[in-house]
Design a protein that fits this description.
heterodimer, A: 270 residues, alpha+beta, four-stranded mixed sheet, B: 201 residues, mainly alpha, Rna Polymerase Sigma Factor, Chain: A
């Protein structure tokens, strides 16, 4: 054993002994603290009287009802249960359909992204513990935004232009990338209107969905956890969208791209 | 020290995977069992990263977040590092928002006269006395944030390198290199190699 090896063994041994002498206060009964909260949140989602009559809140209830009905119907077939979970449960983003047209007028000026405070890409990487992935084919994003929702971290990368994409009327950006870390509760809701299509895709082996056609995106952050609150961010029209997740994050790309172009872009994330 | 498993002497009646599957279907009692099973290690993780004042909030938020993220959990994976990754993130968020940096030294039991720690005879069986433990805790407190995190996960939470990588969301090679640099830093701070004291078996 070399001198350096011996030193490493000694310091590792000392660390293990140190671990044994660290005094941690006893843990409270977390089950008693957590489960009632989950039950309250589940109740809040399915009892309309607990929500104010805000347009966004009604949509939450409608989304929950649709998902519940679909789950009830499809769960009767065991083989489809996993498909339901993987299809609708991108962590942090709920997806559902509404018959008819969006009530929003077609955008004449881009809607604000409402993506939190603008930061440098470096600061966002620090906040995300270096987990932000970027499309390898593109230069750095024009703007980077960041906000937190509970323990979740939402990072948005906005590209004013790219070699192959033009700015969309919905956002004014050629590409908007949203990365959600540690997403537990839903943070966004995607609403698909008549004429929209959702197609399952694979991104480097991970399940994803490409949504084409009339659609909106709604920020759910406060409505779920505080039934007395209303949405601060109204829904906005959204361009075509690709959503997928992996062990690190949930990703959302928005732009005027085709399915194949979106999948190619997503597959280049590093 | 017993941290993994967390279920005590009685064998768990259900595997983590089975409980996750039931919790995904909305069975709160199944999730309550998972919460109980991992409360101790989750709490210790949060205390060591964020300090005792913010640990409880961080762990509660993490268990709530984890419940909603169960659809993302892969059945073939290990539940513990998956959960601890969420706990560690919640604790790091608390740490950032509080601006408080907890001191590991404050968590040492050495001042309660437990005496030196003896371990089985081996090359690493040096008896680390109270003063050395204080010095080592101080040295860890002085490490850069990422180095402190990797040392905390690997040695103070007794996770494997693979689990540490999963908890911190870093590639395995990054864990290895940051761990190596952290140990170099601690060795330098303590000059351990020049003052080893080998204790009695």
């Amino acid at each position: 054993m070399t001198h350096d090896d011996r030193s490493r063994v000694e310091i590792e041994g000392a660390l293990r002994q140190l671990a044994a002498s660290i005094d941690t206060p006893p843990a409270p009964d977390y089950a008693e603290l957590v489960i009632p909260r989950l039950e309250r949140e589940a109740t809040a989602r399915f009892h309309p009287q607990r929500f104010p009559a805000a347009r966004g809140a009604k949509r939450v209830l409608l989304a929950a009802a649709i998902i519940l009905i679909m789950a009830g119907v499809l769960a009767a077939v065991p083989d489809t249960r996993h498909a339901i979970a993987s299809w609708f449960s991108f962590s942090g983003i709920k997806i559902h359909s509404e018959p008819g047209r969006s009530s929003l007028t077609p955008p004449t000026t881009p809607a604000p992204l409402a993506a939190g405070r603008q930061v440098t890409l470096s600061a966002a990487q620090d906040a995300a513990a270096d987990r932000i992935e970027l499309p390898a084919e593109l230069p750095a994003p024009t703007q980077t935004f960041l906000y937190r929702d509970g323990s979740a971290l939402v990072v948005t990368l906005a590209y004013r232009s790219t070699p192959s994409l033009n700015p969309t009327p919905e956002t004014g950006y050629a590409l908007v990338v949203t990365e959600i870390f540690n997403a537990g509760q839903p943070i966004f809701e995607k609403i698909l209107f008549t004429g929209a299509t959702a197609e399952r895709v694979d991104i480097r082996g991970e399940p994803g969905v490409f949504i084409h056609g009339p659609q909106e995106i709604l920020n759910l952050d406060r409505a779920i956890h505080d039934p007395d609150s209303v949405h601060e961010v109204p829904p906005r029209a959204s361009a075509n969208t690709l959503i997928w997740n992996d062990n690190t994050a949930t990703y959302r790309l928005e732009g005027a791209f085709t399915r194949d172009a979106a999948v190619s872009l997503a597959s280049s994330f590093r | 020290m017993h941290l993994a498993g967390e279920s005590g002497p009685t064998a768990p009646s259900s595997t983590d995977g089975a409980l996750v599957e039931r919790a995904r279907r909305g069975e709160h009692d199944a999730y309550a069992e998972l919460v109980r099973r991992y409360s101790t290690i989750a709490h210790r993780t949060a205390v060591l990263i964020a300090g005792p004042a913010d640990a409880e909030d961080a762990v509660q938020e993490a268990f709530i977040s984890a419940f909603y993220a169960l659809a993302r959990f892969r059945q073939e994976a290990s539940f513990k590092p998956w959960l601890l990754a969420i706990v560690a993130n919640a604790a790091r968020n608390k740490l950032r928002s509080s601006g408080r940096q907890p001191r590991l030294r404050d968590r040492l039991a050495v001042d309660r006269a437990i005496g030196p720690v003896h371990v089985a005879p081996s090359a690493e069986s040096a008896v680390v006395d109270a003063d050395q433990r204080r010095s080592l805790a101080d040295a860890i407190d002085q490490l850069p944030a990422k180095a402190r995190l990797v040392v905390t996960c690997r040695y103070l939470l007794e996770l494997s390198e693979a689990e540490t990588a999963q908890v911190l969301g870093w590639p395995a090679g990054t864990v290895k290199s940051r761990l190596s640099r952290a140990l170099d830093g601690l060795r330098l701070a303590l000059s351990v190699s020049s003052t080893p004291e080998v204790g009695e078996p």
